[in-house]
Amino acid sequence: VTEEELSGLQWLSRERPEAMQHLLAFFRESAQHLDPKTRFLISVVTKVVNLSERGLRQYIPRAIREGATPDEVLDAILCAYPVAGLTNVIDAVQVLRSLDLDGLETASAATGEPEWVTVARGDGIAPGTASVVEARGRSVALFNVDGTYHATANACLHQGGELGCGALDGSVVTCHRHGWQFDVTTGDCMTRPGEQVQSFPARVEGGEVQILV
Ligand code: FES
């Protein structure tokens, strides 16, 4: 989804809510039986076929964050060859090589049993605001929704913008880069229904904010 298409999607949802709710329900229900990593790898294949550099830059990091390895992404790119042809495959490989994949967190960044980790003082983040914290090597967005803390992965599902730098309105954060929105209490993506950013349980213990990560 390009930025132009995205704003068009949001506009249509407002102008034609009944028609759009069927389309959005289709997105939700058609993705029920595939795990996120597989879905994003399939999206990579479609972006090779269309030779959409923007789409590749969007979906390769998302596949990596869901646990795909660079070799699996390369396999997906090569799978597109019979339809996409060699030129598209080579160009997609160039996009893959240009991405800083080492800087991306994967869904399994923190290994072992989850632990409660102190990330802030209880009064450290004002109600209605967000912040970025580190916990067990992960970058986490921490939100104070009317005095209750919520935590999600910091990287936006779109292109990795920092959700902890976004604007919080009620329980909805708007990514500061291109405006994707997420419910911080569940991680649900409002812009792409059916997709979710990882969320972490949060609590206040002994005057400290802790998250289970
Ligand atoms: S990075 Fe584009 S909306 Fe978040």
UniProtKB/TrEMBL annotation:
Q: What is the protein named?
A: Rieske domain-containing protein
Which keywords describe this protein according to UniProt? 2Fe-2S, Iron, Iron-sulfur, Metal-binding
Q: Where is the Rieske domain?
A: 116-211
Q: Which is an annotated Pfam family here? A: CMD
Provenance organism? marine metagenome
What are the protein's GO molecular function terms?
A: 2 iron, 2 sulfur cluster binding; metal ion binding; peroxiredoxin activity
Q: Does the keyword Magnesium apply?
A: no
The record, for InterPro entries, names: AhpD-like, CMD-like, Rieske_2Fe-2S, Rieske_2Fe-2S_sf
